[in-house]
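Final report, Chapter 2: Outcomes

The project's central promise was a pipeline that accepts a single protein chain and returns its three-dimensional structure in a standardized token representation, suitable for archiving and comparison. That pipeline is now operational. To close this chapter, we reproduce one record exactly as it appears in the project archive, with the input sequence first and the structure output second.
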Amino acid sequence: MKSALATLCLLLVAFLANLSPTEAQSSLEYDLPQGIRDALTKGDSRTLSAYFNTNVELVVLAYEDVCSKAQAQLILENFFNQHKPVAYNELRGGGSDAAKYSIGELQTEAGSFRIYFLIKIVGDRMTINQMTVEEAPG
């Protein structure tokens, strides 16, 4: 789990280093497609998995692996069944023309979770390459 978070942090620093101040400010707007935000709020693993790359690096609490779309969908379905979502709030995001990151908080009936995404952009298609779900701090 620490390796995925470390990778995400390094990518975040690399992206932010390449942004001018104006680009950095505009990148604070929502970076996730509405479909991803809606899927998180509803606990809809099927819709969320439609955004996954062929393989996705997935960290969900104690689970960490590179999964196929189908495997990732089942793991998230299990997570959502145990932690019914109430709301999702994107806290920050940014990136470049080729990739974006997003950090948000998922409130569930069982507590709050921090969600990290790394999304690659190819043409007009955004695909989730990395997703991390961990207990929210505090």
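Archive annotation: The chain has a mean pLDDT of 84.
This record, like all others produced under the grant, will remain available to the consortium after the project formally closes.
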